[in-house]
Fold these 4 entries.
Entry 1:
Amino acid sequence: MPPKEEENSTIQNETKYHFFSDPNHGWLKVSRAELESLGISEKISECSYTKDEYVYLEEDGDAILFCDTKQKENPGWKLNDHLIEHDTNEQSPIRNYSRHTTTTHLQ
């Protein structure tokens, strides 16, 4: 089943993050605006993908950078407290999105 294009939802002033995975990899969906507010949008690699106002952070590097930065900003923050997971046994459509570049957010 393809990932739903759901907004990262806010419940009781808490943002929920969507994590999508296929048999080979996974991505954390984060808004470009949040990456920019954290000051890490220029540090996101081309291993991540982008669509509309969201970046799908590659799980092994960019998602870790995001989580580490969020925890520095708010030491009690833990991704698992805000996570909604979506798994598929097929290749994820995210692989067909545009690769993220440091200039992607300027388009």
Note: The mean pLDDT is 87.
Entry 2:
Amino acid sequence: MLRPQLGDALAILSNGDLLQAYGARDPWDLVDHLSRLELGGTRDTDRHQTLAAAGTIIVGWLSSDDGAVTEEVAGAARTWLAAATRAPDS
């Protein structure tokens, strides 16, 4: 049920005119920009996006029948650990 709503939100944040109006490169850059304007600071979206992307690969590996650790999985684990232990942006 949440997936369609998230897709709609991402589609809105990906609108080229909206991105251009705020000088954003992508939806996450737009979220950071609007956070600075409206909330007084960013919410470290880059860190969270990195954790989510790497975590997706790791969870996929955990759910696989193979269990072999590929370079992709090892790289995702290193990336996730680096992002997880990095101090949050202020």
Note: The longest helix spans residues 45-63.
Entry 3:
Amino acid sequence: MKQDFSQFKELPAPLPAGERVIWQGKPSFKALALRSFHIREVAIYFGLLLIWRLSSNWSHGVSAGEAFTSALWLIVPAISGIGVLAGLAWLFQRAACYTITSKRILFQFGVALPMTMNIPLGKIANAALKTYRDGSGDIPLRLNDEGRVSYLLLWPHVRPWRLRVTEPMLNSIPDAAKVAAKLAEALTGKPGPSAISLVNFDEVSSSSNAIANSPPPLQPERRRIMSEAIHEPVVPKGGVLAGAALILFALAAVTTVRLTGVGGTHMTLPAAIESRDLRFEDGQHGAVLVFDANDQQLVDTLAPGSNGFIRVVMRGLARERKLGDIGAQPPFRLTRYAGGEITLTDMSSGKQIDLGAFGSTNTEAFASLMNLRSVK
């Protein structure tokens, strides 16, 4: 089938006499975005964060509407991150072009600085193939040249994780099996069905089975041309075990500190200079009523939809009281210290929250309750 090469980049220089173009193509944008830029994994990551945010807000007693509104803030960085990755995938796909000739393979790439890499067919020791459900695939090239190829310079046109011995790769090309057949034809000089049989081995587990029905290669140094399927890179077991051990150690250390207090750092607050005991009750239409626990007078009314931080903190504490079968009568104590720190203490359980850890704006929301006069 004749190809229209006008849709692709021009070659950096005219081909020598007797050399012809066998195939020319670009990576598939969708496949490049999914497999090289991992857009799917990033979307799953933000989806899990969104679920965690919703469940965390719900566990602290936040209403469904407020929990949903709070979780929506994650959508902005999610869309931005995925958009940036998609844009990069489009730029890399637009700048890339692979050309197979009767003498060489040309890689044209580079978004900011266009570059060309020329690989003579004689320097290819092995070419493998991996296809995917959509028909696209990858064809990495193992070179017999001892000269080191830069992994970072070639990325993403390189086989993943082959850092020590870099393998240039035709990445995410459409109709990968047909392209592999054309490459086999160029390498072996055997056109037609014999070339196709060399690359139809996506599920093959060993190279001996892959070439059992294929004709013998023409040259000894090409005995393994198209003879093995790509296997996903194996992460070193030592690194996996070390990472797992580090995670388990961190979990064990945190658990030990939380249960025993051994190894923990305890902050000693300065002398308290002011405190006020408050009670919080639900009012009509979503309002929150704040009372002075000493004289039972109304201090403030938090309008519906306002003072989100106070609502989140108090609903979390109220939920803990409900689980402990504690009523709403015991007060909460706001305390201001000489150093400016402000804490909120549940007098029924002794749990203390350092409000300064949530920022000055959120701390000021509680601090304002300490200065308000009772409404008589």
Note: Residues 235-266 form one domain.
Entry 4:
Amino acid sequence: MDYSELVARLDELGKAGKAAGIVTIWGQAAAAIRDLLAEREWQPIESAPRDGTRILATGGGLGDKVDVCEYLPRVGAWETWGYVLDDRDDEPEGYSRPTHWLPLPKGPTS
């Protein structure tokens, strides 16, 4: 069973619950799983933060490699480990720009 099926099943079980507390708990569990899934799905780069937040990115000039990137507003391009993912004059518009992104995971708390 994948995560989407699990969420659907939790929703079903929650709606079938007799006690209001069970319905609430199942609903909260399903919502938490939905949030986790949304954080792990690759998003189009157009929706990525452009405020200096570091992200995981892939596609474009990165190919199938995943790398930590941040957007440089003063340059208008994405940067990763010291090089800028910007189009050269002989490349079509958007060739080097990453195509998808994920937020960086949170670090350990202790």
Note: Confidence is low (pLDDT under 50) at residues 87-91.
